Target: Putative transporter
Amino acid sequence: MCYGAERNSVNFAVYVIFVAISFISGASAFVMSDVATCEMLGDRANTFGKQRIWGTISWGIVSPIAGIAIDAANTATNNQAGYTPGFYVFAVLIVMDMILLHRMPRLRMGEQSTSFFKDIKTVFGGCEVVVFTVWTCFTGVFFGVHASYNAWFLEDIGAPKLVIGLSYSVMTLLAELPLLFVAHRILGRIGYFWSYSLSFAASAIKLVAYSFLGNPWYALLVDVIGGAAFPLAFASMTVFARENARQGTAASVLCYLNACFEGVGVVVGNFVGGVSFEKVGGR
Model:
């Protein structure tokens, strides 16, 4: 038993290390790809959502495939496979992504700031940026709870892996995809802050509705509304950084907002979600 406990402790430590590396590298890649996309769009940065929908489409297609693969593997191995098939699918897609990125033409950055630190100080000293930063942190809290505990909660109420995969498909294909496609119209009509407010409302409705779920299949109906949170917030954050940053500082502003989102909001959301699960349960 001591050997088993020691082995589990080592496995957990290795898992934590790899998760940390994954989040660090993943966050950097997401930010840089978003900035590069906005740079290529130039004056049409408000159409960022139309480019981001392809990631949404991929997520919506791959999620149920991974869920089916996990269910099939565990059925064949008497529940010994765990989530391993999902990691294999992820590894194959990452290799394909690396090959495509290697074949892309090198991006030419626009004119850089001649007084970088002064411009950064001016941008971050603005009231609008400060308020937007606070809202971004709170948005990260919602996403932290959802990203880490959505699948866990569904498992607790007896959802098969297929339902968990389909929940992400519903969010991406029925909510995120159409909203990202028209994000520029939404931002142009109601602005960044109202878009964030709608994102908060969608997250709140999902969390409250989940607390009443008995049949896990009904989660798919709730996810149509909950799926609106990501496109409304993410498109707002990216375009806000691009349009409010001074020349040559867009990448830094977006990195700053993402640091608040991931490094503050998501961390707090994970912690609060973990404590809540332990103390009061998923509901």
